[in-house]
Amino acid sequence: MAPMTRQEDLIVILSNAPDLLLAKRIGHVLVEEGLAACVNLGAPGLSIYGWDGKLEGAQEIPLVIKTTADRQDVAINRLVALHPYDVPEVLVLPVLATTPHYGAWVRAQTRHPMHEPEDGAH
User: Whole-prediction pTM value?
Assistant: First the structure.
């Protein structure tokens, strides 16, 4: 097994999208703009939550976004701008450890955009 090392500068952002098409768009934009190294789309699942005093339920696509703490604010701002919800889920989790090679890959992927951002957003 590869050795695990502390990687305090890496984070995971958890979110969701109301459908697969938007989830794919968010993932593509974040990776292409160098705001995330990778975005995993999970299987659709039922989210149950309270909204405006009522119990709600909706099918959503989970998003797991891997990036660096340096890119956190820009990545979150871009995610929120692309998202249709008034209050999209945005949870930032620290990465306690990973392999040195994976950590280096995340850092390299988030240094520069693959393409220029759409509509001039950064």
Answer: 0.89
